[in-house]
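Task card 7
Instruction: Convert sequence to structure tokens.
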Amino acid sequence: MVKKFYLVPGLILFVVNCFSQSDKDTSIHKTAMAVCSCLEINNIDTISTDDEMQQVFFKCIMDSASEKIADVMLGGTVTNPETVAEDFGTRLAVEMLNSGCKPFVQMSLKLGKNSSNSANKSNLIKTAEGEVIKVEERDFLYISMKTVAGREISLIYMSYVPGSDEWIKNPAMLEHKKVSVKWIETETYQPKLKEFVNIREIKELHIE
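Output:
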């Protein structure tokens, strides 16, 4: 749950650079309570989207704790702001949980639930029946098929699936064959495009 808030350190870096020489007296607990009060005032429990919740959370960090953050560092000159900021972000999240900050707990649960729902959705197995119209052997094996509904889709064979022994040594034999397939939509990095793209990864393929 705390991992979700590792986004905090990136924003805290700005604060560390501005206040690393501060000599005010404060504590991680006071900082956590200040942020908690801000979350409560901003009615974080009524917000439903991840982006809005994180925006309000970051705003509370800046509005309520920016002048206090550097004071809970270990003291002296900060030689590695990124490491210190990450450590502080983790400690802040843990302290808010341990202190029973209700708005923060509610936000954590919502973010965790949304993340879980998103993962379950992305791993949902989908099915189709149709005719294979093209097979290409590139970085992976790409199989294009036309479904019975008339839609053309492209799928990728990335890892062994049951029943593939009969055609994997000669994938071209699949062309013009009637097949039924199961796949999941997943995300992978494409070096040539220098970006992540969604793909349909084959989990089952049966020749009819």
